[in-house]
Here is the input.
Amino acid sequence: MEATKEITEYRGVEGLVAAEVLADNREEYRTGEVFSIAGVAEISKTTSSSSDVHYYDNAPAITIESAGSDEITCAVSTIALDILARLTGQDYDEKTGTLIEGERKNVFFALGYKTRKTNGDEVYVWRLKGTFAVPDSKHVTINSGTDANGQELKFTNISTTHKFDKTNKGAKAVNVDLGRDLADVTNFFDAVTTPDTLVAKASVPTTPTEPNAPTE
Here is the structure.
């Protein structure tokens, strides 16, 4: 008899971080330091895809499918201006604390975060390459209510150029279900974790049993 599957939903998200992609080519995939973006309230993902049916002999014969980029939308608290400048490739004057909006430099980042399921199990995520759009923001007058607004940050997630040894393919993201208790995630967010740097938990060595002491 098949075991009953546990039914869960996602409920919880935290720890939104990023790291600049410094190299992504045939030889290597390399990133910079990990830094915090802002408080996160919600993350959603949509994938652009297309499907086309080809007909032969007056009948549908072949279906061609293609998956494109992932659009990651993050509802976040107010993003500090220096972080916003960094994410969007704009200029920031540290002496005056000023974001100078204007021509953007195209910069790629990795995006990391934690989600949680209703059974308490966490899922750790690193999206390995993408670009951030300049976020929308809304400012309203103070009134007698409690209304306030954060920001919406959009990240276009694409596959890496670098092919990882583990799969011999590029990758968009790694998603680790901690409920399976298989992967070593000790340093998962200290640096960007990739398919090649993620390893299984080491087997716990068995402590040898000491022989009984001789009786006197």
In short: The longest helix spans residues 81-88.
